[in-house]
Amino acid sequence: MDNYELRPITEDEVFSFQRCFGKAFGHDHHDDEAKLLRDQYELGRTLAAVHERDGVVGTGVSMRRELGIPGGTVPAAHVTLVSVAGTHRRRGLLRRLMTRQLTDLAGTDEPVAVLWPSEPAIYGRYGYGPATYTLEFDADNRELALPAAAEPYGFLREVELADSLKVIEEVFDAARADRPGMSGRTPAGWRAVVADPEHQRHGRSALRTIVHEGPDGPDGYAMFRMERSSDATGPQAVVHVEEAVATGLDAYRELWRFLFDVDLTRRVRYDYGTLDEPLRFLVTDPRRLGARLTDGVWLRILDLPVALAARAYPVDVDAVLDITDDLLPGNAGRWHLRVAGDELTCERTDRPADVALSIAELGAAYLGGTSLAALAVAGRVTELREGALAPLSAAFGWHREPAAIEVF
């Protein structure tokens, strides 16, 4: 059998590490993109499968970033760059990489891990559950209108990309304060957001930034590109919205009024709408938004008692959860979750269980967007004591839908 070593890479192996991932996903190598990517991860948080003859043939990275959860934030492992070379598939490398990564992460102070799956069917095997969902909009802007504000509230201004970072960073951080699922950005992450290398434009325009100024300063921004097109009837350009972030309704409405009314355009596309996206209730004809539901971030609980104690719960609960976790046995067993006002405990117990579920279902429900009751209807959660599921499901809910507005 071929010999593989699983370990972090050295600086000399960065190129082969990124090339392995790029080939797996059909990406050409670009020096500027590679440098931006390398700036975002630590060598000690890489994991490579290194073959004795072929070098790096499997990859994985976890980046430490803040993750919004109900009632606060936690440090979270953001997993990315997972790949196996095509010539080394069907040898159990992915399972070895994922299992080793989870085992290593379970020994840190990061109680959860998150990822954007390229193939969702893969990651349920490793205890990840779908924790956020997104609405992808492909809107016909000729048939859409948003109501104007009753009184002028602020104004829009275009900001040069190179000068926009401080403004958009402040708005972004303010907006994510009450939104589970949104991740904080490191300085390297922000540099990547505004870098705008030409090969990432896919024939579209350079990135443009519009900022909304309210009475107290900037309170919203939108970043977008234009894709030129026309036919026999005239211009058919498309606005591709990269980010649209606002801290209040007035800024939100004015930004989208602008995006739907860009000259020469006929469509507006945006891939990161939330399930509670206000656009659905503001536009005159919501069908014209062309919304399509898809899964977003998947979440894996690494340290169950720490994770459950870190989040807030909208109602009191007293329940025993019977958890199965084949990869991290420290999470498995019966846990007594008790929330009474400001008091919260999550401890092992010998009491009979009220509800049984796997760690993947608990991860799906953790951010408040996937209902335990809905998972029970699908046969993924089992109520063991009559009447226990409803209050537990309510306790894991939240007043805002979780959202992730970027692929990392």
UniProtKB/TrEMBL annotation:
Q: Name one GO molecular function term.
A: aminoglycoside N-acetyltransferase activity
List the active site.
Y123, F408
Highest taxon listed in the record's lineage: Bacteria
Concerning HAMAP family, the annotation shows:
Eis
Protein name in the entry: UPF0256 protein
UniProt key word RNA-binding: no
The UniProt keyword set, sorted, is: Acyltransferase, Transferase
Subunit annotation: Homohexamer; trimer of dimers.
Key word Acyltransferase present in the record?
Answer: yes
SUPFAM superfamilies xref list: Acyl-CoA N-acyltransferases (Nat) (SSF55729), SCP-like (SSF55718)
Tell me which InterPro entries the record gives. Answer: Acetyltransf_17 (IPR041380), Acetyltransferase_Eis (IPR051554), Acyl_CoA_acyltransferase (IPR016181), Eis_dom (IPR025559), GNAT_dom (IPR000182), NAcTrfase_Eis (IPR022902), SCP2_sterol-bd_dom_sf (IPR036527)
Q: Where is the N-acetyltransferase domain?
A: 4-149
GO term, biological process aspect, one: aminoglycoside antibiotic catabolic process
What residues bind acetyl-CoA, as annotated?
V82, S83, V84, R90, R91, G92, L93, L94, R95, S118, E119
Similarity comment: family membership? Belongs to the acetyltransferase Eis family.
